[in-house]
Amino acid sequence: MKNLIRYKPYKTNTNDGKIAERQVKTTELPINSQGENGTVYVGYIEVTKKCVAVKVINELDEYENALKVSEKIQEMLPRKNRTHIIEMIDAGLRLGVRDSIQQGIFVLELGTLSFAEMVYGASLTYQNDDELGRMARHIAIPMAEFHQVAMHLDVKPENFVLTKREIERRNFLLLKENISEDVFKIVDFNGAQLVKSVSTKTDIWSIGVIMLELLLLHRFYSENNSFQKSEKSEITKQLSEVVDLYRGFSLKKIINSKEFEKNSPVEYFSNKIWLLKYYESIGFILQFWKEFPKMAILITNLLSPNRNFRMTANGILEFIAGRCVPAEIKNAQNMQQFPIFNRVLFGEFLQILKEWQNELAQNSADDEQIEKRKEVNRQKREKLTKMANIVTKRQNKVHKELVKCRNLCETGI
């Protein structure tokens, strides 16, 4: 490793109470694309003979906030209660750079690869609710630990990493064996806020979005040769359109800003134009309701427009384990009273499709092109209706099982 980063630690590290300079070697090239949240390198500490991750942050206020959160986690959570949060080894201000530049440094436990690298690098598909539920559990466990102290506010696949830990087990012959197991850990506390009066439900929404991304990848690898790699940009585009349906409006980026603003609202009940605009996304949603009926209930809850309805991270874990049911499902008489996206219930969605059928059945047009378009729209409506009816029939069976559970999933309200 050729680069040497010198830094002043954030707390005293000598017997006389003074702060002595420290240094860490790093690779020349970062392991992430340099972005808003800093640049990460693989590093090596001579004293401990350990490989680490070294994060360089250009914004001092972001560094100070992340340091505050990291310290609070170490202060409030015993080591055994934060096994799914990347450990901060050290932090400080970088030395040896121009006076006009101030950079914060974090020395962190090194992960093997990010969750994003794993899901985009492996052709992952899921056979049933249990398999998809295990993936959701991997995401929820770190968040449950983190939410004891803070909101993350930037939950995405890139901010989870896989590490290896050695677990001692005994087999039936009472012989000890070390089993190396992948463990998901959450990283990157830039922008995180200590929990006070604010809500962790923003993070819960983001978990729902990650689940949609996993399902889009599932669809891609189910329909394509497993050796063909997905294009992240295309998946991101599809994901944005699907999320619009849950959010109730699209977003556009403000010029020369990191922020977004509301763009076009989805007019669910005023006209049928949105059915054509989001036809592919609606079909995708109905398909995963058909394939993964239990996980579809979870995802719809996490993406509820009413944050009070969203489960906590612990609620997610309890639901996956079959120990609770969301209140909106418990209180529903049948599947038609389930939300499908935003505030639209399945029964309302079926009614919208019926109204669309009536509109398309009105007087035929003399214009041949218009009539052809109407015929294409009729076929699309029929396909959505057929899928929705299949989902309704299957989900009613799932509903009968779920309502047997007496416990409501934790929402923190």
UniProtKB/TrEMBL annotation:
<dbReference type="InterPro" id="IPR000719">
    <property type="entry name" value="Prot_kinase_dom"/>
</dbReference>
<protein>
    <recommendedName>
        <fullName>Protein kinase domain-containing protein</fullName>
    </recommendedName>
</protein>
<dbReference type="InterPro" id="IPR011009">
    <property type="entry name" value="Kinase-like_dom_sf"/>
</dbReference>
<feature type="domain" description="Protein kinase">
    <location>
        <begin position="26"/>
        <end position="320"/>
    </location>
</feature>
<dbReference type="Pfam" id="PF00069">
    <property type="entry name" value="Pkinase"/>
</dbReference>
